[in-house]
Design a protein that fits this description.
Elements (H helix, E strand, L loop, with lengths): L8 H11 L4 H15 L5 H11 L8 H12 L4 H8 L7 H13 L1
Helix pairs in contact: 1-2, 4-5, 5-6
Length: about 110
């Protein structure tokens, strides 16, 4: 009997992992889909507010820095990589840099 693929991306990933039919790339794609699904009902303003609450220093970054930080986080960058991207931004305080260091350590 063939099981139907669940519509919930997290359930689909778990099902594929247990059935042994899931590559690392498929697991990564399922995780990305699950993350996207988690925030699908959130408006841009709500998402920006969530980011501002979690990482207020993000509002001080340039668009290019935000894009570079996003790409770095998608590649599982560590705190040193994040600081290399934004460390020269004069708008960031020592406290901001400490938060970025801690933020990168959590990821």
């Amino acid at each position: 009997m063939k099981h139907e693929t669940p519509t919930d991306p997290i359930a689909a990933m778990i099902q594929a992992m247990f059935s042994g039919g899931c590559t690392e790339e498929q697991i990564a794609a399922a995780k990305d889909a699950a993350r996207s699904a988690k925030f699908a009902g959130v408006s841009d303003a709500e998402l920006e507010a969530m980011i501002a609450e979690q990482a207020p220093w993000m509002s001080k970054l340039t668009d290019a820095e935000i894009e570079a930080v996003h790409e770095a986080l998608c590649a599982d960058a560590d705190a040193d990589a994040l600081l290399a991207i934004v460390g020269d931004n004069p708008a960031l305080t020592d406290e901001d840099l400490a938060e970025i260091r801690a933020f990168g350590a959590e990821e």
